[in-house]
Each structure stands twice: as structure tokens, then as C-alpha cells.
Design brief:
Strand order of the largest sheet: 1-2
Main location: cytoplasm
Protein name: H-NS histone family protein
InterPro entries: H-NS_C_dom, H-NS_C_dom_sf
Number of strands: 2
Organism: Alcaligenes ammonioxydans
Strand content: under 5%
Shape: elongated
Distance between the termini: 72 Å
Family: Belongs to the histone-like protein H-NS family.
Number of helices: 3
């Protein structure tokens, strides 16, 4: 079912009407969802503080820090991941091996 519109104003009015309908529907379903949540909280002896605490937990895993695999005497380091740094390219262009700068894993 598609309604034909003859002007921008008619389209804007239809959008406003649909938005009002969506808001009413959201409000209607929201009440049920809230009552379901409250019922579940009572069944499981949960308090609002329990719920608030769950929101404050950091769900994201922390990013693992890569170990340094190569270190230049001037302090530059590289994990061996990602783009090869300029200093590694430089030493290899001089005929030296990056393994000469490998950090021992002791």
C-alpha cells in the first residue's frame, strides 16, 4: 500500500504522523518490557543497585600488549607486527640482520 503525495508538505505531514504512531507503539511496548524486567528482578532477588553495577562493568576486553621483539641501541623498538619501521629497513639496507637487534626472551 503506497500513498501518492502531491507536495513536500503532504510528505512531511505523513512523516510526522508515522513518527507519532511509532512513538505510541514504542510507549506501549516499553511498559510491557519494564514490567517484564521488574518481574525478572523480583524472581531473581535483584536490586536496582545490582542492575546499576552491571552497567558500570567494562564489557570490553582489554587489548593485549605485544612484547617488544627488536630494539635498536638508540632506544627505538618494534614488536615485529605491522609495518616495518624505518630503522629496521635502514639496518637491512646496510646488509645487517634484524635478528642482530632481537630482544632476548629471558
Amino acid at each position: 500500500m503506497r500513498k501518492e503525495f502531491n507536495s513536500i508538505t503532504e510528505i512531511k505531514n505523513e512523516i510526522a504522523r508515522l513518527q507519532r504512531d511509532a512513538d505510541k507503539l514504542k510507549q506501549k511496548t516499553r511498559s510491557k518490557v519494564i514490567s517484564d524486567i521488574l518481574r525478572s528482578m523480583k524472581e531473581h532477588d535483584l536490586t536496582p543497585e545490582d542492575i546499576a553495577q552491571a552497567f558500570h562493568k567494562n564489557p570490553l576486553k582489554t587489548k593485549a600488549v605485544s612484547k617488544i621483539r627488536y630494539q635498536h641501541p638508540d632506544g627505538h623498538t618494534w614488536t615485529g607486527r605491522g609495518r616495518t619501521p624505518t630503522w629496521i629497513k635502514q639496518i637491512e639496507s646496510e646488509g645487517r640482520s634484524r635478528e642482530d637487534f632481537a630482544v632476548s626472551s629471558n
